[in-house]
Specification:
The protein is mostly helical and 112 residues long. It has one domain: Cytochrome c-like domain (Cytochrome Bc1 Complex, Chain D, domain 2, Orthogonal Bundle), CATH 1.10.760.10. It contains five helices and two strands. The protein has helices at 2-25, 29-44, 57-65, 68-77, 97-109, and strands spanning 79-80, 85-86. Strands 1-2 form a two-stranded antiparallel sheet. Strand 1 and strand 2 (85-86) form a beta hairpin. Helix 2 (29-44) packs across helix 5 and helix 4 (68-77) packs across helix 5 (97-109). The radius of gyration is 18 Å and the shape is globular. It starts with a helix and ends with a helix. The structure holds heme C.
Length: 112
């Protein structure tokens, strides 16, 4: 009996691990809109301070080619590129990594 329960728990934990991995690889662009509006639009809506403007396909094409991982990591950690300075989490340290990732997905979905 104990053996059966521990095998069952083991199976359940593997299923759960699979589920978290899958969801962390996917971003929720609809949820990202609120974060974008509150934090990222400040620069990315009008293209302030060198920020790639949302909807400007030419400004995003090369960035999108890098892949989501690069863009999300840069948005989370901040980065200084040729155009300007992308602040860590858009300057809002209260945002979770997932919220920043979702906001990137939202911006990208509107820029390609
Ligand atoms: C203070 C202005 C500012 C705010 C606020 C801001 N950004 Fe940026 N962001 C920039 C600038 C400037 C760049 C371009 C840097 C460069 O390439 O020289 C940039 C670039 C980016 C890029 C492209 C990275 C790449 O790999 O090319 C992403 C993605 C991004 N921002 C996401 C976000 C998200 C998500 C938020 C909100 C959480 C946000 N930004 C808020 C200024 C800002």
């Amino acid at each position: 009996m104990f053996r059966f329960v521990s095998i069952a728990l083991f199976a359940v934990s593997i299923v759960c691990m699979g589920a978290t991995n899958a969801s962390s690889a996917r971003y929720d662009k609809l949820a990202g809109k609120a974060t974008y509006d509150a934090t990222c639009a400040m620069c990315h809506k009008a293209g302030m301070m060198g920020a790639p403007k949302v909807g400007d396909k030419a400004a995003w094409a090369a960035r999108i080619k890098q892949g989501m991982d690069v863009m999300v990591t840069r948005a989370i950690n901040g980065f200084r590129g040729k155009k300007g300075m992308m602040p860590k989490k858009g300057g809002n340290p209260k945002l979770t990594d997932a919220q920043v990732g979702n906001a990137v997905a939202y911006m990208v979905s509107r820029s390609k």
